[in-house]
Amino acid sequence: MALDGSLPVETRLEMQRRMLRIRLFDERASKMVKRGQIPGTVHTSIGQEAQVVGACMALQTGDHITGNHRSHGHPIGMGSDLGPLMAELVGKATGVCRGKGGSLHLADRAVGSLGESGITGSSIPIAVGAGFSAQVLNEGRVAMCFFGDGAANQGVLYEAMNLASAWKLPVIFLCENNHYALSTPAHTVTGGRICDRAQGFGMPGVRVENGQEILDVHAAVAEAAERARSGAGPTLVEVMTYRFREHSEGLRINVDYRNVDERELWTSRDPIVLHRAHLIDEGLADASTMDAIQSEIEEEVEACVRFALDSPDPDPAVAFEDLYTDAYDLEDVK
Amino acid sequence: MSIMTYIAAIGAAQEEAMVADDRVVVIGEDVEANVYGTTGGGKERAEQGDFVQRFGRSRVRNTPIAEEAIVGCAIGAAMTGLRPIVDLSYSSFLYMAMDQFVNQAAKNRYMFGGQSSIPAVFRSAMFYSLSTGAHHSDRPYPMFMGVPGLKVMAPASASDAKGLLRQAVDSEDPVLTFEAVPLWGAKEEVQDGEYRIPFGQARTRREGGDVTLVAISGSVPVALKAAEKMAGTGVECEVIDPRTLVPLDTKTIVESVMRTGRLVIAEPAHRTCGAAAEIAAVVAEEAYSSLKAPIRRVCARDMQVPFSPALEEQIYPTTERIVAAIEAVTRD
Q: What's the pTM value of the predicted model, to 2 decimals?
């Protein structure tokens, strides 16, 4: 079913807000990398907003997520405050991780984000653990791990899927299949369909063929979440999507590894444009309402940038904190 | 006080922790059947003390043989309300979960600015000197000493094993505990009831004014024998067991060397970049002027472990090798 008419209008509008937050946040971050305002690089979720927000908004308060290097979208999708996220990308004292994580390693416990991971596939079993604690403590929570088509070939995914299935844990394995592991086309390094692998572990595996339609993503993940919460165990959801930009900002690859026709097809399916059109077509919002939402988010993103740039650098002593929970000795730096 | 074996002390600490706190769970390979004797009172399911009967299968769970998932799952569970004790069986199997230990357990709290803590204990057993061959005979604790964010303990007696494990379960940070299988059957008087041994406090096993003899894990009883022998020749060794390697009680060691002027370190791990190397470096930095002789290390040779008993024993520190090192540092 392409459209889920049962979602309240406000939820549909909030979906658009969160997708716009990701788009505009990432566009702004990309510029800031080029200007040298953000050290290192960033991996944007531009083009994949429906896949991210549709999945996040199918969860409830108290649920957990883990993610990967394409990291900003997940906490934003869960509702994070943008200021501390942008401050983290810039490396400021007010950063959500106190300036120690950066773009690749965001976490925001306030919205259930346990942490993104720069190591491909590494955060998958962490979500299984969050599902394990939910089951033992009988807390009715669900945990979802985001990982890409590249991580789908890591052995740890199959260890994690097996464990989650054997213990019937409330876990959602959310594969963001954007068709490329950096420059490597997924089909050249992947045997069969990723979603079909679920069968071997005795869990449902579903594929959202058009992950640019946020309601399709939401419906699939909502069903997986309901199944998880009811005690029936995990689900693998593979969402077909596309990143509109390069793997990471500033990366220059001279080989044209992405076919022009393919690019044009996918970029014509802009999830934000599509969702806006649906809302207007269904008579749920008019163009001026949608424009107002866009302006509201533009202002929010500009405010987060100002907050980040105006924030102080972290005190150097912060580099030597947070390793352990108790006091520990460090060699004197002389 | 009661007499207890090293392995029984580990079981007793796990039992106490399970009783004290519902958030404590034991997961790992073969924990339900109490294969190693740490999850029950006896070897039979019907026996009193059986963990599955007492605490249920929700809190005592066999895992698949999938170390990366087991360790990652424990980390995620610890971040979200449980206090897992993970039985990883042979310490050689830790390598299968290296990414989770190094990239997740050790870095998570730090790189996310202290948002989470990971109160998990990872138990593993060093089955060396038992003809288990190269894939089952590792003593890998020094590798993990090189990973900031992990705590590392290596008890050498029953009472230490119990008190340190209890402390580890209480720790809000990930702890790796390396048990010396050659000591599993070693008995010691153990204090009755619950007690905890703080991390970073060495135990002086024998006092002496001539040579400081630091020994780790399974090398502690060997060092005590060597000290006994040397006492017969009039050389008194102070035998110190650091008990935890991260944090490491350098103060006790350095103060002892300042008194004795001589240091021998014995451990079952490899010589290169071992705990002995770190201790030697600290003493060289902090007590150089007190040293009357070069520091000597008695470690496992930088060699893989052979299977045949006729070949294996010479790999590790023996009483003879430790005695020879003590004689070398006392030869003026």
A: 0.97
